[in-house]
Write a structure and sequence with these properties.
By secondary structure, the chain is an alpha/beta fold. It is built from six helices and eight strands; from the N terminus they run βββαβααβαββαβα. The protein has an eight-stranded mixed β-sheet, with helices on both faces. Strand 7, helix 5 and strand 8 form a beta-alpha-beta unit.
């Protein structure tokens, strides 16, 4: 396993001081980078460990913050913050741009090779960056088949992959259909993976606090969704693009 380094980064966004988690791969050269967004509860060790796993694969990874360093384990508090946020594309873009600025200014980051991967609210932020015209190599989301303002998805210039549980009541079939119709009408290179029998946040290990109805962990599909994310990055943002001296450094199975 390669040696990675991590550090906490603070930056302003949405009127708050955000506290993100930056993971750097071994070496000193510039690498492709991934902006990693958390579920509505906020940044936790789950996303930090995913950022670390991406760094082990050779990416610079920033797991960004949604709530000013807070993790909202109370479902009512989480919804009270996230629902207005999800209804305000400009606020979501502001949170995304602030984190993107941190990632781009990291010396190890190749600023021309960045992808956004996000879960729930964090995935919606990534989609809004694309709708806002940010140049990304890929957008990957889980539980975030959110729609945007009319016509803006035509500004998405990269492949979009979305994963969702078939039994997710928060992202039901009608919502999924509206999302895919928007992507298709905009001419986006899109894919949708439906994980049979999975609920909302199926990728997230069980938590020790109450959750909103319709949430549940599905270990098998959680592993599959992670592999799908890694495969998306391997296709659209290959680490080996400028690293011919290290053919073993690739996004393969096992992470």
């Amino acid at each position: 396993m390669t040696t990675i380094t991590t550090r906490t980064v603070e930056y302003p966004a949405d009127g708050l001081t955000m506290i993100g988690h930056l993971a750097l791969p071994a070496g000193v050269d510039r690498r492709p980078a991934v902006l990693l967004g958390p579920e509505g509860m906020g940044l936790s060790d789950v996303e930090r460990q995913r950022a670390d796993a991406l760094a082990e694969l050779g990416y610079v990874a920033l797991a960004f913050d949604l709530h000013g360093g807070r993790y909202l384990g109370d479902p009512e508090e989480m919804l009270a913050r996230c629902l207005p946020l999800l209804a305000d594309p400009d606020r979501m873009r502001g949170i995304g741009h602030a984190a993107l600025d941190v990632l781009r200014t990291e010396p190890r980051t190749d600023p021309d090779r960045i992808a956004a991967v996000g879960y729930g609210t964090g995935g919606a932020v990534g989609l809004e960056l694309g709708r806002g015209g940010v140049s990304l190599r890929a957008i990957g989301t889980v539980n975030a088949t959110t729609t945007g303002r009319p016509g803006e998805s035509a500004r998405i210039g990269c492949p979009v992959w979305a994963g969702v549980g078939s039994e997710d009541p928060i992202m039901p079939p009608a919502q999924r259909n509206a999302f895919t119709a928007e992507m298709q009408a905009a001419g986006v290179d899109w894919r949708l993976t439906v994980y049979g029998g999975a609920l909302h946040a199926f990728h997230h290990p069980p938590v020790d606090h109450p959750v909103v109805p319709g949430v549940g962990y599905h270990p098998r599909h959680a592993q599959r969704a992670w592999r799908d994310v890694v495969d998306l990055l391997a296709e659209c943002l290959p680490v080996t693009e400028d690293l011919g001296h290290d053919p073993g450094q690739h996004a393969g199975p096992g992470h």
